[in-house]
């Protein structure tokens, strides 16, 4: 009770303001965006349940896209609610290549909030696993952006975060210009589980879903280590079409 009163008093003295427009945010929200700026983000409204690629207008009643129907990926579900453009693109860039911790926290909080509206509590995965960086990239960057995004999810959904469950062997050069096939070939055998699982559902956390090659590689490694099912959770998605 005393803590709640102190928190309200603190909030009235130091109300948190929107990162984009400096307006005051809702007092009960932990997201540093006002309602208007949050609604104006490039949300993907109807997406494939399996890979999060937006569904065409004539297929919005379908659960999966044609690609996943023909050739299902090793992960069972993907949540990636924002298109990688405008502000989300800037935030991901800041998180990866700048200091960007506030942007990473914002992306993780937006994703956590979306997940609470998307999953029923009994459907939630058992563990969070961030996509690991190679030691070389981690040393150069100083932080793993997937861990920064996973922390608000861990706190909001109370799912244990296994930071060291997977390692990334060796160093793969930037994959940005590569096709999905080239990425898949590049990533073969690169993720190695450091523990065994016994049928649990794992949510893999990353900053952006692009071709799905990284997601497929890490999902396959987790399934080989005994996971029952793998979900992919990223705040943003690049669009393939
Ligand atoms: Zn705003
Ligand atoms: Zn799909």
Q: And the CATH topology of the largest domain?
A: Rossmann fold
Give the class from helix and strand content and strand pairing: alpha/beta
Broad shape: globular
Query: What is the radius of gyration computed over CA atoms, rounded to a whole number of angstroms?
Result: 18 Å
Q: How much helix, percentage-wise, in residues?
A: 25-40%
What gap, in angstroms, lies between the N and C termini? 52 Å
The strand order across the widest sheet is 1-8-6-3
CATH architecture name of the largest domain: 3-Layer(aba) Sandwich
How many runs of DSSP E, i.e. beta strands?
9
Major sheet description:
4 strands, parallel
Distinct bound molecules? zinc ion
What's the tally of helices?
9
Average pLDDT figure: 87
**Strand residue percentage:** 5-15%
User: Which ranges are low-confidence, i.e. pLDDT below 50, for 5 or more consecutive residues?
Assistant: 1-5
Give the domain tally: 2
Oligomer: single chain
One letter per element, helices H and strands E, the order comes to HHHEEHHEHHEHEEEHEE
Give the C-level CATH assignment of the largest domain.
Alpha Beta
Question: Helices, strands, pairings?
Answer:
Blueprint: H1 2-13, H2 35-39, H3 66-70, E1 77-79, E2 82-83, H4 86-97, H5 101-118, E3 127-130, H6 135-141, H7 145-157, E4 166-168, H8 180-187, E5 191-193, E6 201-205, E7 208-209, H9 213-224, E8 229-233, E9 236-237
Parallel strand pairs: 1-8, 2-9, 3-6, 6-8, 7-9
Antiparallel strand pairs: 4-5
Helix pairs in contact: 4-5, 5-7, 8-9
Bound molecules: zinc ion (2 copies).
One zinc ion binds next to helix 2.
